[in-house]
Structure formats: structure tokens, C-alpha cells
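Sequence in, structure out.
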Amino acid sequence: MASERMLQFVGREQHYPDKRSADERARDFNEIAARYAQPEADDQASRCSQCGVPYCSVHCPLHNHIPDWLRLTAEGRLREAYELSNATSTMPEICGRICPQDRLCEGNCVIEFSGHGAVTIGSVEKYITDTAWAEGWVEPVHVGPATGQSVAIVGAGPAGLTAAEYLRAEGHEVHVYDRHDRAGGLLTYGIPGFKLEKDVVMRRVDRLAESGIHFHQGFEVGRDATLDELRRRHDAVLIATGVYKAREIHVPGNGAEGVIAALDYLVASNRKGFGDAVPAFDDGSLNAEGKHVVVIGGGDTAMDCVRTAIRQGAKSVKCLYRRDRENMPGSQREVANAEEEGVEFVWLSAPASFAADKHVKEVAVAGMRLGAPDASGRRSPEPDPGRTFDLPADMVIKALGFDPEELPQLFGSPDLSVTRWGTLRVDHQTMMTSLSGVFAAGDIVRGASLVVWGIRDGRDVSEQMSKWLKAKAKSEKKAA
């Protein structure tokens, strides 16, 4: 019986796809592990316990039907598994690669709690949709009857692209405006290829373009058109810009040459991977080759930076983080990958100053310790006066997170309301901003977050926008 193929977690051990050796993968920007072959994927999917309350789905922001597509995979019904996976996510193979499954679905797997090791959900998810692309099962966007209404989407990241797909399927004319020369946002320019190869992103973008979605690249709202001008051109507007303003660290020497922002560094590396001309990389400003590199921060962006520096041939790479390993926000899997590749983590440490003539040459480090818990219950770091030391540094990369840009000013729209954190203020039922017909979704509303939350927000806001557009069309018809 098909059901007998499941609940194999006692007899079958957890096994992720084999990673390439650390030495080999540190020499290129290819993904570090191959995808499963079919027998492995079927075997690992069959470990699912098919529990009555699937905590994996509960803790997935998209509430993917994980146990169901694991069962279909184990039964060899892979096309059905793909269709079910695709029903709730516009980018399942991307989530399979970059979601922190150890904090979400796999971290909440019931058999993980029982000591048998979680089902390898992310790797199976990646396998399902990669196979679907290879077999030609990924169909074009099914575009509904034309509504005669048009939508502007500002930002071509996960939230914007997801909303674009759903709104196009509703039959709306969709225009996506983005400041970069390629769509994808951080998927394209922020996340390194060893986590997400770029052809995986580009084939998704191409599929959207083939559906008739219009992409306006190199377009900056405020420079090429104000927000009010976009509102006049379109029936509704979605702001899905993400958050791009780097958080600063205020210590002496912060302005020295060689002290750089994480996103500048990652964008330069990704552009180089596309074959673009990148003068700041070629002149060494944004290239870690032969340098002692110090990265400040403990999130996923910091992990991307340290692992990129290794691949660029840095002489040494150290990561300073003010808390300990157990309290860092980045994925523990990423930390393990970085350590394997030669990154040294300096826990409970923070920069006190950057020594420089003109160019940075050393970081003075202040030791930290964990004090009393803050309002969230997390122990706050505080200086440890008995511990200071210096680290050599030819390049310092600041990966301290991101804040929203000042959109009302940038967009020439002072009536666009923001919160005290600078994120856009929305009605959380309708996802509309303070301006009629202008919606917002993704990080620009919730603050810097995960790609999977951007996809969820894009899905939710498209539903709200569709309702609003239908009501608008009905009202206009009555008025006529």
C-alpha cells in the first residue's frame, strides 16, 4: 500500500544531499550541494510521520502543504507533488535553497523532537521543482480575461514579483518598476550564487515577462516619475521596495577607506558573476583577494559576506559578533558551512575603533558579555571591561542590518505615512497605505525579514488589491 511507504523515520536515517568538499566549493560560486537523485528524495520524503498537526506547515509562513507533497514524492507521484507545492508558493525551489529551514519547517518537525532528525524538507522542495523545470511541467502563467485595469509595482524583489504573478493571473495589466538593471532584488544582487545560482532566479523572471508583465529596469521613483505620477498612470500601486539603507556603526575610523557596506560588497560580487563591468571590484575596493577581512554582524548577510570573501581569495576572514553562537540571528547551518570553509568566528566581540592612515589597517575590538534580558527576553550584550584586543584588517565589511529609506521624501510624496521605524504604515486588513489605491508589502512594511515572508506578503496583498480593483471597476461602471 502507498501509505506503507511513509513513517520510515526509524529505519531510515536523515541524509542531506552531499556537500562538495570545503576546499573545492571555496574556489567557486556554485551551489555547495547537488540536488537529490530520485531514490534519495523518495527515501527521505518517506521519513515523514504524516502527523495530525503538521508543525512544519504551521511554522512555514506560506503554510505549504508539506506532509502532502512529501507523501506524493515518496509514492513517485512527483508531478502532483510539484503542483501541490506550486499551489501555495510562487518560488518553491528558491525557498528550498535559501529558507532557514532549521528555524522554520525542519526545526519544528515532530520527528526532530523525537530525536530521529527532521525530514529534509528544503532539499526535497528544491528537488521537486528543479525536476519540474527539467521535465517541462512548469507552465506559463495562466492569464485571466483582461480587466482593463493596470497596476504599478515598485520593486522587483520576492514580494513584488509574487504580487505581479497573481495580479497578472487575474487579468490585470502589470508594470514592475525597479531601480536595478535586472529583476529579482536581493535574490539577484544580494544573495551569493553559492546559496542561489542566478539562472534559478532569471528563469522565474523570464516566465513572468513571457506572461506579458512589463518590466521597467533602471527606473527610480522620485527621479523618473513621482509616486503621484504613477498613481495617475495606473489604477493601483504596490510599494514593495524592501529596505536598503545600511545600519551604521558609530566608532572612530568609520570613514576610512576599506570600511565598506555589506550590500555594496555583495552587489559588486554578484555583478561580477553576471560578467558586468565593475570598476570598484577591479580596482580592489570591493574585492577581498589577498586581504585580511573582518565582517561585523551575525545575521545571514554577514554569513554571505564571510563566505564570499573566502571565495575571492582573502588572506583571512574573521566575523565579529557581539553575542554568542547560541544567540546569533543567522542560520546555524550557514555558520557551520562558513567554519568548514575557513572563516573564524570571534564571539562576544564588537569593534571599538578602526585604525587607519588613510586606509583601514586594524580593528580595535572590545570584548562583550551577555547581561540581563531585554524586553523581548533576549540577553543584552554589554562591554566586558577586562577583554580588549586588536585584529589586522585590510577590509572591514559592515553587515549590521538594514533600515527603510525615507520613501515619502524619495518618492516626492509627503502624505505617505510611515511608522516611527520608517516602515510604511498600512491598514493591516487591507494592506493599503495612507494613500488611496496605494498598497505596500514585504520588508518595507515588516522591516528586514526573510524571503519567504516577502512571498507570503506578495500573495496576501495581491488578494487585497484584487478586491479593491473589482470594487473600483464596479463603482466606475455605476458612475458611467
